[in-house]
Amino acid sequence: MRKIRKSQTVKLRRAGAPRRKSPEERKKMMSAIRSGDTVPELAVRREAHRMGYRFRLHRKGLPGTPDLVFPSRRKAVFVHGCFWHAHGCKLSRAPKTNLDYWVPKLKRNCARDVRNLEALTAQGWKHLVIWECESRDIRSLEKRLKKFLK
User: Fold this and answer.
1) Distances (CA, A) of 119 to 1, 91, 126
2) Which of the residues 95, 115, 117, 118 could staple to 102 if both were Cys, CB 3.0 to 4.6 A apart?
3) Cross-strand pairs, 89
4) Cβ proximity of 86 and 110 under 8 Å
5) For 49-77, how does the pLDDT look when each residue is reduced to its tens digit (9 = 90+)?
6) Residues 6 or more apart from 91 whose CB is under 8 A from it?
7) What is the Cα–Cα distance from 55 to 58, expressed in whole angstroms?
8) 8 Å CB contact between 58 and 65
9) DSSP letter at 116?
10) What are phi and psi of 9, to 5 degrees?
11) Which residues contact 45 (CB under 8 A, 6 or more apart)?
């Protein structure tokens, strides 16, 4: 065991606690987060296609740019990440640092989601929101898609 002099300062971390990232490391990590073709979105697309439905992706002319669009049915599916859209499940745990940034950011995301869904409804479209945590249960996902697209 190493002796520590009083003049030396030692930062102690709990065993297994993550090291705080530098701004450069954090920027690199955050820039790697994708907005499209995410694992949950691909799971929903794969299931809808397997069920025989054909769709368009990320139609920019619609409010909120839905992930899957069924133009002939006038229906749109959004696949929301639990963290980014503040779902409230175990996948959407609140950030522990930089709360001055994250709390307003997540509130703005939720408000934008509500505005987009209202605008989509006003244009005569029906919508379905599938959460990241819901996309893991394929049987349940199939039932929801079938009921919505009927």
Assistant:
1) 65, 28, 11
2) 95
3) none
4) yes
5) 999 999 999 999 999 999 999 999 999 99
6) 82, 83, 132, 133
7) 10
8) yes
9) H
10) -105, 135
11) 55, 57, 67, 68
Q: Locate tokens 């745990």: which residue?
A: 93
- Name the token pair of 141: 């996902």
Bridge-based pairing of strands 68-70 and 75-80 is antiparallel
Collapsing DSSP to helix, strand or coil, 126 comes out as: strand
Kindly report, residue by residue over 99-139, the tens digit of the pLDDT: 999 999 999 999 999 999 999 999 999 999 999 999 999 99
Q: Round to whole Å and give the CA distance between 141 and 145.
A: 6
CA gap 60, 36 in Å, rounded: 13
Nearest Cα to Cα of residue 35 among 86, 68, 79: 79
3-state secondary structure of 86: coil
